[in-house]
Amino acid sequence: MIAFDKISASYDGVHQAVEDVTFTIDQPAIIGIIGPNGAGKSTFIKAALQLIEGTGTTTVDGEPLQKRQKEVAYVEQKSDIDYTFPITVRECVSLGLYPDKRFFERITNEDWKKVDRALSLVKMEDFKNRQISELSGGQFQRILIARTFVQDATFIFLDEPFVGIDATSEQIIMDLLNDFKTRGKEIFIVHHDLSKVERYFDELVILNKTLIAQGPTEEVFTEKNLKQAFGDTIFVRGGQSND
What we know:
Elements (H helix, E strand, L loop, with lengths): L1 E9 L5 E10 L3 E6 L6 H8 L6 E6 L2 E2 L7 E4 L13 H6 L14 H13 L15 H15 L3 E5 L7 H16 L3 E5 L6 H4 L2 E6 L1 E7 H4 L2 H8 L13
Parallel strand pairs: 3-8, 3-9, 6-7, 7-8
Antiparallel strand pairs: 1-2, 1-4, 4-5, 9-10
C-alpha cells in the first residue's frame, strides 16, 4: 500500500503547481494520472517521491518513503534524459541493480542473466551491445522499462512513457506492465491520450493542480470529472477527447 498525504509543490515558492493531493492505492493496479497541460501531473510524482522540494508525506505500508526507497522505481520523461551518454543498452539496464548493491560491489554473472532476461522481455536482446544513442524513442523507452524490471521495485512511476514511441513498443510495454501487475506491482503512469484510458488503466487520478477525482476507472472517468479538469470545451464521447 502506498499513501500520499497532502502532497503540494510550487514552481518558485510562489506559484502553486500541485496542492494538497491525498489518496491511497492499496492493491496491485495500473493507475493513470491524467489532466490538462500544466495540471501538475509530473510535479506531483516528483514531489511525492521527494525528487523536488515540496510538502506532504508519502508512506509505504505505513512507513516513511525514505525507509522504502529501494521499492520505488521512477522513469522520467525521455526528453529529460541524455541520449548521448556513452553507455550500452545492457549497461543502461544494469543500472536498475545498483539500489541493492553496496558501494563498489560488482555485478555478478547472475545479475547479468537478470539483465538479459529483462532485455528479452522487452524484445531488445539483439540490441544489448548498442549505444543507447542508436535507439529509436520506442526502443529506448523499452530499455527504461527493462531497467525497472531488474530493480524489482514494487511501486513504479512512469512519466509520459508513450510520448513519441511506435505502436509496437507501446503494446510491448503495456503487456509487460500488465504482467508486472499480476506480480503484485502498483504502476503509476502520467498519460495524455484519453482515448486509451479505459483500455489501459484499472484506476485513475484526475488532477488539475488539486485532486479532481480518484478511484476505479469505470467510476471516475466521467464527463463531469473530465470537464472539471479540462474545462467545458472538452468533447467526450465514449472515452474520446479533442484535447
